[in-house]
């Protein structure tokens, strides 16, 4: 992969009929859904059939399994995902006919042009923060539109047009595509080195975030506890942008404090710029989710809602798919699925589970045996494994039992000498197992887990499919 060439969005009512190449992907199908709800004619194709294609067909889209030039039909605009190659017959047909061709992010950007757009960016926490903002605004009666990288547990959908004047979307920095969005309000959760198969290094990442700042018309909401995000805030202020901050830092506009684990929920206080501390609770473990919740309240406040009423909306947040998603329980063992695929994310989720288990033990009066953390991790990308092997190992040392699958290649070809052993050989205890075979990995997890433990499947690849399999094996 590489950074995409930015393309300016086109107003929705000027798109004409839109054909999506790769319409079955999570991001593409969400945009297609919103366009259908807004009365736009939509067609699309994907290499494989699936539930998302069937859902879009029920909404009125013309969908095809497989790619062929004739599928373009009477489309005036072609939207392509980043996975589509130049040789794709539908893309070639559109170019031969001189049709408008837009990358996915430009189509997403179109949805923001005639509404109050809120875009959530950052290396970690985008999906959860976008979900929290959406649920909070729904509670406030704002009926927001949304396009999220994972499905909301409350609605079962990853996208909806909404009927209000606000739309909330994820702003993906991984390939630079967030530079095609022009939001009124943007959140920057944190900025770290990642996606180094696309970027030359952290400085290039910061340069892209600085360019993103210029596309925000009203307010930057920034996680001030993170050094990278603080750097973005400094750039924004230098360029005359309005900046509000959130975090535990003394100078944060939305000050977080008194964080306390309550089992797999977390209690905390949030002090807005004007007002007394508000006691809050979010149904998710970990400090990182508290910060995500603080960002959501700050956005609601910027949109004109009372923070005390907005906080009540956190009670309705029950998670997003793949973001610490409960998959089931058997034999006294709970199984969760996490999209964590960067060392910082692994460390945060494992620490959160540990704190939740400690909280439960304390509430029992210390009589019950302490539950343990069992991590089943699938490294994602050869390049990321090579670059962050030591950091992955350090993060996984926080788990009591560690099972590591083979590397999920995704878009990359194998690299000589790069394997999961780069991680397993460095984990700081001997309760670590490398099982490239999925069935062997599941069997190992079922063998080591015991009542009271929490199993966490972790990674951005197909490890997500193993949660229910583990539950069955435990049963």
UniProtKB/TrEMBL annotation:
Its EC number is 6.3.2.8. Signal peptide: none annotated. Pathway: Cell wall biogenesis; peptidoglycan biosynthesis. Residues 120-300 form the Mur ligase central domain. SUPFAM superfamilies: MurCD N-terminal domain, MurD-like peptide ligases, catalytic domain, MurD-like peptide ligases, peptide-binding domain. Residues 322-461 form the Mur ligase C-terminal domain. ATP binds at residues 122-128. It is found in: Cytoplasm. The keyword Transcription regulation does not apply. It catalyses: UDP-N-acetyl-alpha-D-muramate + L-alanine + ATP = UDP-N-acetyl-alpha-D-muramoyl-L-alanine + ADP + phosphate + H(+). It is an enzyme of class 6 (ligase). InterPro entries: Mur-like_cat_sf, Mur_ligase_C, Mur_ligase_C_dom_sf, Mur_ligase_cen, Mur_ligase_N, MurCDEF_pg_biosynth, UDP-N-AcMur_Ala_ligase_MurC. GO terms for biological process: cell division; cell wall organization; peptidoglycan biosynthetic process; regulation of cell shape. GO terms for molecular function: ATP binding; UDP-N-acetylmuramate-L-alanine ligase activity. GO terms for cellular component: cytoplasm. Keywords: ATP-binding, Cell cycle, Cell division, Cell shape, Cell wall biogenesis/degradation, Cytoplasm, Ligase, Nucleotide-binding, Peptidoglycan synthesis. Residues 18-114 form the Mur ligase N-terminal catalytic domain. Belongs to the MurCDEF family. HAMAP family: MurC (MF_00046). Cell wall formation. This is UDP-N-acetylmuramate--L-alanine ligase. The lineage of its organism: Bacteria, Bacillati, Actinomycetota, Actinomycetes, Streptosporangiales.
């Amino acid at each position: 992969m590489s950074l995409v060439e930015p393309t300016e969005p086109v107003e929705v009512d000027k798109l004409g009929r839109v054909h999506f190449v790769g319409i079955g992907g999570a991001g593409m199908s969400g945009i297609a859904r919103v366009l259908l709800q807004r009365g736009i004619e939509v067609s699309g194709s994907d290499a494989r059939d699936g539930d998302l294609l069937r859902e879009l067909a029920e909404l009125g889209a013309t969908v095809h399994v497989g790619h062929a030039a004739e599928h373009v039909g009477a489309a005036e605009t072609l939207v392509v995902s980043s996975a589509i190659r130049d040789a794709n017959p539908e893309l070639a047909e559109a170019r031969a006919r001189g049709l408008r061709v837009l990358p996915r992010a430009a189509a997403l950007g179109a949805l923001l042009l005639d509404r109050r757009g809120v875009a959530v960016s950052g290396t970690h926490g985008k999906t959860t923060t976008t979900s929290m903002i959406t649920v909070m605004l729904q509670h406030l009666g704002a009926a927001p539109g949304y396009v999220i990288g994972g499905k909301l547990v409350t609605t079962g959908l990853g996208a909806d047009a909404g009927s209000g004047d606000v739309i909330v979307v994820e702003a993906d920095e991984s390939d630079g595509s967030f530079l095609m969005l022009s939001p009124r309000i943007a959140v920057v959760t944190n900025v770290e080195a990642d996606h180094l198969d696309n970027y030359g290094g952290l400085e290039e990442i910061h340069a892209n975030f600085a360019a993103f700042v210029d596309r925000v018309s009203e307010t930057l909401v920034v996680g001030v506890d993170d050094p990278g995000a603080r750097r973005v805030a400094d750039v924004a202020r230098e360029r005359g942008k309005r900046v509000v901050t959130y975090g535990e830092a003394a100078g944060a506009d939305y000050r977080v404090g008194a964080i306390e684990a309550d089992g797999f929920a977390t209690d905390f206080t949030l002090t807005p710029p004007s007002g007394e501390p508000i006691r809050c609770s979010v149904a998710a473990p970990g400090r990182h989710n508290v910060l995500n919740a603080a960002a959501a309240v700050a956005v609601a406040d910027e949109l004109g809602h009372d923070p005390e009423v907005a906080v009540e909306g956190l009670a309705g947040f029950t998670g997003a798919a793949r973001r610490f998603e409960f998959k089931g329980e058997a034999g006294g063992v709970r199984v969760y699925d996490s999209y964590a695929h960067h060392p910082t994310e692994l460390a945060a989720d494992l620490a959160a589970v540990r704190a939740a288990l400690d909280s439960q033990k304390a509430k029992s009066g210390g009589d019950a045996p302490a539950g343990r953390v069992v991590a089943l991790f699938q490294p994602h990308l050869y390049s990321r494994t090579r670059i962050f092997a030591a950091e992955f190992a350090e993060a996984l040392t926080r788990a009591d039992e560690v099972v590591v699958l083979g590397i999920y290649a995704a878009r990359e070809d194998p690299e000589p000498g790069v394997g999961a052993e780069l991680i397993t050989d460095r984990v700081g205890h001997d309760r670590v197992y490398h099982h490239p075979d999925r069935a062997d990995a599941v069997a190992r997890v079922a063998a080591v887990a015991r009542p009271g433990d929490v199993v966490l499947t972790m990674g951005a690849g197909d490890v997500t499919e193993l949660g229910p399999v583990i539950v069955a094996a435990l049963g």
